[in-house]
Structure formats: C-alpha cells, structure tokens
Amino acid sequence: MKILEVVNAGRTVSRRSFIKGVIAAGATASATSYLFRGPASAFAAPPAHGAVERLMSLNVNGQQRRVDVLPHETLAMTLRYKLGLPGTKLGCDRAECGACTVLLDGTVHYACSILTHQVRGREVLTIEGLEAPDGTLHPVQEAVVDEAGFQCAFCAPGFIMAMVGMLNQNPNPTREEAARALSGNLCRCGDYNKILNSAMRAVEYTQQRV
Amino acid sequence: MSGHKSKSDCAIVGSRLRKVDGRAKATGQARFTDDLTFPGMLHGKILRSPHPHARIVSVDTTAAEAMEGVWAVVTGREMPVPYGVIPWTPDETPLCVDRVRYIGDGVAAVAAVDEDTALEALNRIEVEYEELPAYLDPQEALAATGDENSPFIHPPRKEGWNGNITKKVHLDFGDVDGLMESSHVVVEGEYFFQGSTHAPMEPHCAIGLWESDGREAGGLSTAGGWTFPEKPGMGGEPGKHEGNAPSVRGKLTVWSSTQVPHYVHRELSRVLGLDPARVRVVQPPVGGAFGGKSEPFDLEFCVAALSMKTGRPVKILYTREELFYSHRGRHPFHMTYRTGASADGRLRSVDARIVLDGGAYASFGLVTTYYSGQLLTAPYHMPAYRFDSVRSYTNKPACGPKRGHGSVQPRFAFEVQLDKVAEALEMDPVELRRVNFMGENTRTVNELRVTSNGFLECLDAVEEASGWRERWRRLPLGRGLGVAGSCYISGTNYPVYPNEMPQSAVQIQIDRSGRVAVFSGASEIGQGVDSMVAYVAAEELGVPLDYVRVYAGDTDFTPVDLGAYSSRVTFMLGNACLDAARSLRRRVQDAVAEFWACRPRHVMLAGGWALYAPDTERKLPIREAFQLAEAAGGTLGATGWYNTPKDIHGEYRGGTIGASPAYSFTAHVAEVDVDVDTGFVTVVKIWIAHDCGRALNPVLVEGQMEGSAYMGAAEALMEEQIFKSDGQGREGLHNAPSLLDYKLPTSLDTPELESLIVESLDPEGPYGAKEAGEGPLHPSIPAIANAIHDAVGIRMDSLPFSPPRVWRAIQEAGGPGALSKPPAPTRPKQEEVAHATTRR
Asked: Domain limits at B160?
C-alpha cells in the first residue's frame, strides 16, 4: 500500500524526477491553448523511455484495478476512459471547475490535475463508490435527492465528493463553512441555495445514521 | 379562467416532489455525451483560425493524412453548403470554405486513434492565410464600404447592401414624437450592456456513427471515397432533394449535447446531403445549456463527416477554451433611450436606438434584433413606442441566444430609465411601476396578446418581503435597495422555420403492468422537463410517480419537439402531455365504468387506484383498471400534441416575432452594499417574485428563479466576454478564455435569493402554467443598478458593475466624501413639478 517510489527495471525513480519526466513529456497538453499550435502535444517531446512502468494497480472504490496508464495521463482520464467510471466529470480539465473532484485517502482532490501514476498506493473514492452494495445511498446522496439539489447535475458528482470530503474534516459545519468548503466547485445552473440545503441536510442524515 | 383543476384536486401537480432523474444524477449513473464510448471509436479535433479575419489561400492536409494513427481529415471546401438556424440567414459552413471570420473559426478537422494524435495532426496541416482588416467595434464595422481596405465580413445579400449588417429593424407604434413632446418629463440615457457567455459546466460533445448498408461509399477508405454535396440536401422539405443524396444508403446517428435535436437533425441532412429519414439525433442528458447549445455547431457536422469517411464512430469534445470561442452568448448592446411620462408617472412615449454587436455569424441574430425591441412592451402600458435596431457583424465569436434572448439588455436600460423618471417626478419607483400596470387580457402597443398577468402581485410580494416602504432611501450610505420588473414569453407562436405542424408532442403507452411510458421529444437540459411530463402523466393517469418512465430526446423514438429554448417547454410539452394522457384516461374510465355499470365521470384515477367517486371505498388497483381497458379496446397508446394559436399578432412585418401564447411576469428587489473606497459591490439579497401561472413543482420553479437571478447578478457584477484589441496583444483574441479569468460566482459570491412564487393560472397553460426559466433573469440587473443608485447616489449605465467601473464612477462624482443618498420623494402636487429633462 505504501509505494512512494516508482520501481522500473531495477532502477528506482524518485517521485520528484518522475514528475519532472512527465512534465517534459507534455503532461500539460490539455492545459495549454491548442488554438495556436504550440509545442503542446505529446508528440513534440516523446516520453523518456523507461521513466515509469505503465501497467499499474490502482485502489479505486475499495477494489484493486489493473490498468495500463500513459505517463502523462491524469487520474480523471484513467477513471473515465479506462476504468469505466465516467461519474467523475471533466468540465475544464485544468483545475478551474471542480467537476472532477474525487477523494484521495479521504481528502478532496481535482482528478484532472493529478497524474494517475501519482496515486499509486492511495485510496481513490469516486461518486460510483459512495452507494452501499445494497443500494443504500450515502447520506450526502440521499440529501441531494431529497432536496432536489442540482439541475443539470453535471457538477453534482464533484460537489457531492466535496461534501463528503468536507464532512470527513468537519462533521458539523455551519452553512457558511459549507459555502466556503464548496467554493472550489462551480455550478452554472446557480443552484447554490439548494446545494447548501443539501449539505446541511446531509449533516443531519449523517448524524442520524451514527 | 377556472377551467383548471384546483390545488386540492391535484395529487401530484403542485407538490414539492423529487425529480425523476434525481437518483441517477446523485449516483453518477446519468450518462452525458462524453460518458458514451463505442468500439473502435476515433477522436476528432478541429483546427482553428489564428486570425480574426483572413482569406484562406490554401489548405494542405497531406502531411496530416500521412500520419500513423490518423484516419481522416475533412476541410471546409468539402462541405460547402451554408446553413444557419434561422433559414433566412444561412451564412456559415461547418468549417470555413474560403474565409475565416474570428480567431477560433474552424478550418479543418481530423479523426485519429486518440486526441494526442489528432492534435499533432492539426500541427501538420498547412494553411496559408491572407490577412484582412478586422472589425472588433460594431460602429467601425457598420462604417465599412466594402472596398479593399474596408472589406465586408460577409458578401452583401443584395446589391448595394452593407455586408456588415445582419439585420435592421425599425418599428414604431403610436405618435412617438408628439407624445414625447407633450410629456411632463423626458429622460434620456445611454447604456452599454457587456456581452457574456453561457459557460455551461458540460463542454459541447458529439459522437457521429455512420452505418453504411455496404453498397455505397463510406466504408473504411480514407482515400477521398466520400463526396459531400455542393447544394443543400432536402432538410425538412420532402421531395425537394438535391445533391448526391439519392445514391447514399446508410444511417447516420449523432449523439450530441444539444438543446435542439430537431434543428441539428435538419441541418445535418441539408449540409451532408442525407435523406432526413436516414439521420438520427440522440440527445443524452445535457450538462447545462442556457441557450448555448441551441443551434448546430461545427463539431456535429465534423463527427458525422469523419464517421462517413472512416466508417468508424468519431467523438469530438470541446476544450473549455473552445467553449469561449464557440460562444453564441449574450450580444453586447449599445442603447439610447428616451422615455416620456406625464406628471402622474404614466408612460407616454418610449424611443430606443440600439446597436447589437453580433460577432462573425448571424446565428439567431435576426430574431435577436427583433427581440431587442419587441419584448419591452409589457408589463407597462405605453401609448407610443419606437425602436430602431441594427445588428452588426464583427470579427469576434458569434453572439446568439442566452437566457432571456435579446430582451435582457433593453430591459436593463428601460428599467433604469423608469427609476430615473421616478426620481425626476419624486415618486416611489414601485408606485411608478404600479401606476403603469397594463392589466390582464389586453394587447400591448405592438399588438402582442397578453392574457394572465400577475405583475401587480409580484410587485406587492417583493415590496412587502424586502421591507421596501421602511427601508428604501433610508438605509445608511453605501447600502441600497432597487426595484425592477419584466415580462417574458412562454415559447413563440411561430417556429424558426415556417410550418403548420405541431411544436411539441408526446406519445404515451400504458399496459397491463400498470406502467406508463412517455416518449417525449423535449430536451432535458437540467430544467426538469422529464420530471414535468412524469408529473402530468401520473396526475392524469392516477399512477404513482415511479410507475412513469420518460424516454426523451431521440429523433428515432420520440415525436418532433422543437427544442428547449425560448421558455417553451412547460407550456407546450405540458399541454401535449395533457392531451395524450387525457385521451388514455378516458379509455380507462370508460372501461372501468362499464365494469362497475356507472357513469365514466364517476370513475376517478388517483394514487394508484381507480375509485368510484360517490363512494371511494369502492376501488380497483390502477393496474387492473388498465387491464380492463386493454381488454376492452386493445393496446393502449396515444399521441398528444400542441400547436400555438396563429392569429394573435400584429399585422406588420415582424409582428409575429414576440407573439407568445402566454407571458410570464417578474419583479425583483435587490439589496446591495457598495464599498465606497474600492467600488466593490456586494449583492446582499435579491427578492424574486415571479408569475409562472402555476407551479407544477414549486421546487423546480424556485430552482429556475434562483438560477436566473444568480445568472443576472453574475452578469451585473462580474462577467465580461471581451477580446483584445490591436494594442493589447493579438487582435481578436479572447481576453480570458478560462473559468478562472472569466469570473463566475461561487457559493461564496452568490447572493441570498428568496423566491416568491405568484400563480395567475393562465387560461391556456397546462394546469395554468407558464414559463419560469428565463423571465426571472431580466429584472436582477436593473434592480442591482437601481440599488447602487439608492446606496450611493450614482448611476451605473454600463455593465458590468465591477470594482474598477464603480470606483471610477465614484471618483467622477467627486470621490467617496462627496457621495450622498438620493433624497426621498416628497410626492409634491403635480403643478409644482418642474418640467425636467435629465441627460447623463
């Protein structure tokens, strides 16, 4: 579980040099403007060979998943397009909107802005992992359904994960604290009122279930 | 009219219910377009222009096509048929043919094994451009002559016309000049409304899948085995087929995050030369639209064309940056208003001149130009009205419809004008609006038919809830209240292309299991239409809500609906669903009545039961009632449809635009706090009272009201869709194409919002319902402007009211020390009021 270094062909690559290699390989392709054709794509600088083993095991929603991951692949890409978990949404792919929010070891992260190879050994929790096997919704999900929170709900998985992360840190937030905790997520339907109602209802449901 | 079921007679309609898709959306199970994937799917990217205005000299795709992993390239010249969502202004092509008109205009598209490969292929396409002078300012564009140094952006549609004008509208009603002349007070003002974009959270995405029947082109060849037509295909007009379509056999399916599957269907058929019977458009749940997905976009044509070329499914997903360039958002408006009123505050004459900055293409611009004037004539009675609007092309991304299409900008100017009139007459602005109320069942000066009208109740509600009488003009310096009103359409009486067919339709099937399946053509974009039809079907057929399943947004499975725009869905689809559900209900009632040997009208369907009305102890489970009906009359299915009244508009050119079967009404009071040292405006609270006719589910109506006010407040304070001029960098480049730099409110920036629902029970709406999705946006902006005036005595006539602009206005007024609250009105006698003309 505690693999902090990436092992490849007998060589140990430190996390730091691994990230450097990834950046050199064009990991920021999706974050830069492609309208003006900079040297942005992965083709401009081929990945340093042997930097990292692509096949990895990832702990997602309590399961070990084997997956082939490119060096510059973000966690959001792996979840959505390789592991069949498209509940995690991509709204901007550059850490602006929060639609891709997941939990890593219980804390909130933007899955678009962390490389999959960086989360080896960590527990990844996505929206798909909240529901109990018997179909019982997580208190946050139940609160969202009851309060009719969200309209188009494209941002909902990110907000719901942010609420779960918030409750991990602060089980009894005020409405103002909830507004602050959720301010890293954007809702364009402007449904913040009902989202905050849902958050406060979730606090209630969580306490009832204990 | 009291033809509607009362609240107490409804089991479902009017209740605070969950949404039918609530669980799927809370668990991440809802599948948006980019969540779909198909075996062998390729990924597409579009090459975009780096110049705001240039001629395309040549496009060389050989190096890109030779790349490993690249399956096909398509260029503008291969798809030359022009289209436009408004049939009178077809001025765009899927990709540019010989001219680019804004930075970001599409030139070529690539399909490859993955996005990285497609991006690299774009790098290898060689495009030679010859740059042309670009226009970022509409006044400069309108002054163009068409010669070499001052070229038109589009060829003039007629000899001698200005090719930089999309549309010009001049309409006048009543004796504008005479009544202005004899007005007691005339207020004149100049206003600027900044453009803004929709920025839905879900980027546009489309997937094309061409299934050839094997005999014709398509297939696996990338060697130019496919030719698209040079003339339009048949579109919606059977028998008028041109191009190469008759030889084309196969079926095209496009999944798209659109709010108008029907228009996408039409234009795909036209441009690609396909028989419309061979095109299917599927609309998965859409992650926000707000008008930004209400016409065909380049990616839909490109995925189709690339799939036809490769025989494989092709997906294109816009980047966030591309959304800012594809745009079709709120037009910047330059407006001049003159408003004349008599001494008692009654409006006499309104005169407007408007220049719309349209961007590179027409989009819905013809309608926007009409809407800039046509929708201002309610809820106030105005005896005379004139507007003169011109929409200019400019070398920026095209503007189009954004929530409150074309009428949000004039409403801002007009409601601020009313505040100035009230001030000049020393009247309370709420009272001024009350005095001018037009009433119910009347016609506007431009001959729109207004039926139900709850505007006075809206005014009363916000006045009361905000403590207006005690607090307006009495809060400390820096704190203020402002009021504004508005009206909006519940759909348009005339579709964008002329036809007599229904505007909305559903098909309902019920069977012996007790299940109700509704096939709805409407587009669920988050507004809750799938829930709305489920509520109506469950109400009429007496089944529990979870017995109803709604299948929507698939042109192969569902009847035609024109789409989720112009606030038409609840009114039109709700009526269509009532129509179908009631005809099925009658069949069930008849069968049960036969079984019980009673009158059909004594059979009630409610709560999962068929009940004998005189004695409700006598009852049958609804499933058994359906079985009786199925046995008596055969398989149970019904279609229902709605079409608008076609005889209620003015008999003048443009008189049909703005005509709607019903109008919603709104009043807002906004409370602001202005930091006089920094110019930072905080909207503390907005009270929103909205006449939606009847709230079919108050929770959803509140969501629309709050979402509208949120978006209005955001436009008022933060949002700016602006482009760099020559001196600021690359001319025509978007100033801030990201969600960090283009400011959107978060949970911390959104004001407190209080929704006050007013129900006027419209005679023609389903259960009396009208729209709620767009109307409540309008007053928030002028209410905030008027509140700033109440707070610090300055007028903000240009959007946005951002700290630099407000700070500058405070400096111009003499700095923070010189500010004071405007005086409270004294309501003097009429003869004592000086004949005042103010001009800012």
From this structure: 36-405
